[in-house]
Amino acid sequence: MVQVIPMVVIDNSHAKEEAWEPTQRKPVLVRSFKRTSKTRWEDVFDLAHSVLPKVILASTGLTLWSVVVCIFYLVPSVDFMRTLNLPNSTLLLSLLGTTVSLLLAFRVNTAYDRFWEGRKVWSTLHLNIRQTARLICVYCKPKNDSEDDRRETALKLLIGFASAVKHELRNENGSRYSDLGPYLPNGLINPKSHLKGSLQILAALQAYVGDKTTVLFPLTSAVNALNDCVSTFERIRYTPVPAAYTIHLHQALVVYMIGFPFQLVPSALGWFTIPVVAIISFVVLGVEITAQDIENPFGYDPNDLPQDIYCDTIVKEITELLERCDDPNNGLHNWIAPYSLERNGVDLKALKESKKQ
User: Fold this and answer.
1) Is-contact 229 34, C-beta < 8 A?
2) pLDDT per residue as tens digits for the range 16-70
C-alpha cells in the first residue's frame, strides 16, 4: 500500500519572522510576444537575442588568422607561402563544407526539438493545473471552515507546484523563494528527502484528492499527468547531446575554418579573403552558438522559455478562482440559464405552447 502524505493546512505565520529569498527572474523582452509570424527588418539590429556578442571573439580571431595567411602569401617580401604551391581548387573546401553543414543541421534540429518539447510540456502542465483547479473549485464543496481551508491549501499547492518545477529546472533547490514558500504549508518540503520538492507537493495534493470520491478519477488523472510532466522535464533537462558528437562537430569546425583562408587566398579573391572569412565564420559559428543557447530552454538567457510569465499566469488564474469560490453569487455551484432565455426577449410561455401544438 502506498503511503500518502497527510494534507496540511497552510500556516504562513513563520513568514513574518523570516524573509523569503528574492526570486531571480528571466529578462522579459517584447520580441518574444510581438509579431511572431511576420518578418521584422529591425531584427538585424536586435543584439538582445542575437548571438553576435558570443561569436564576435572567435570570429575576430579567425579573421586575424586570415590576415596572417594573406600577408604571408600576397606581400612580396614575406610571400613564402606562395612557394608552397597551395592548390587553387576549392574541391576540398566544398567536400568539407558539405560535411560540416550536415553536422550543423543535425545539431540545430536536435537543439530546437528540445526547446519546442520543453514548451509543449509547460503547456501540458498548465492545462492540467487549470483542470485540477476547476474540478476542486466546482465539485469539492466545503461543509465547514476546516474543509474550506483544506480546499484553499490544495489550490495554493498548484501554484507552489509550478514554481517548484521552475526552480528545479534551474537547479535552484529549497522552498525559501518568494514565489514558492508562501504557497506551501510550513515544513511540507523536506530538503533532506530524495524526492524533489515538486513530487512532495504532488503527494500532499494527492492526499487531498484521495477522499473526493465524486471526482476521484479525473482529479487523480490530472495529478498523474502533472507527475508525467516532471519526468519529461527531467528527461529534457538532464539528457544533453552526446559529448562525442559535440566534440567531433567542434573539431570539424576548427579544421574547416582554419583551412578556409588557404583555399581562398590562391584564387582571384586575394585580399578579399579577409572579409569573406569574417562573414563565413560569423554565420557558421553563429549556428553552433544558437544551438547551444536553445538546447537548455529553462535558464535565464534571453532566448530561453519565459517560465516566470507562465507561473505568473497560473498565480493570477488560481487567485481569481479562489476569490470566486468564496463568492456565493459567482455561479460556480449553480446552473446558469442560457443567455438567449434570459435576456434575448424569449417568451417562455409562448415557446411551450408552440411545442404543444
Assistant:
1) no
2) 445 677 777 766 554 544 555 555 667 777 777 788 888 999 999 999 999 998 9
DSSP letters spanning 189-255: S-TTSSS-HHHHHHHHHHHHHTT-GGGHHHHHHHHHHHHHHHHHHHHHHT-PPPHHHHHHHHHHHHH
Cα dist from 153 to 114, 136, 138, 322, whole Å: 34, 11, 15, 10
167-178 pLDDT tens trace: 999 998 888 888
- What are 177's strand-pairing partners? 21
CB 291 within 8 A of CB 113: no
Average pLDDT over residues 137-146: 84
Task: Look at residues 204, 179, 178 and name the one whose alpha carbon lies nearest to residue 190.
Answer: 204
- How far apart are the C-alpha atoms of 166 and 198, rounded to whole Å? 9
CB 58 within 8 A of CB 281: yes
Packing angle between helix 52-74 and helix 273-294, nearest 10 degrees?
Answer: 150
Q: Please give the Cα distance from 12 to 15 (Å, whole number).
A: 5
Q: What is the overall mean pLDDT for the chain?
A: 82
User: Nearest Cα to 183, choosing from 201, 207, 209?
Assistant: 201
Q: Which of 115, 114, 197, 111 is nearest to 161 (CA)?
A: 197
Give the integer Cα–Cα distance in Å for 259 and 97.
11
Which grid coordinates are listed for 289? 552558438
Distance of alpha carbon 162 from alpha carbon 119, whole angstroms: 14
Q: Are 240 and 295 in contact (CB under 8 A)?
A: yes
CB atoms under 10 Å from CB of 45, counted, come to: 7
The confidence band for 11, taking pLDDT boundaries of 50, 70 and 90, is low
Q: Which is nearest to 265 in space by CA: 86, 91, 95?
A: 86
Task: Report the sign of the C-alpha dihedral through residues 3, 9, 12, 14, in that order.
Answer: negative
- The pTM score is 0.79
Phi, psi of 106 (to 5 degrees): -65, -40
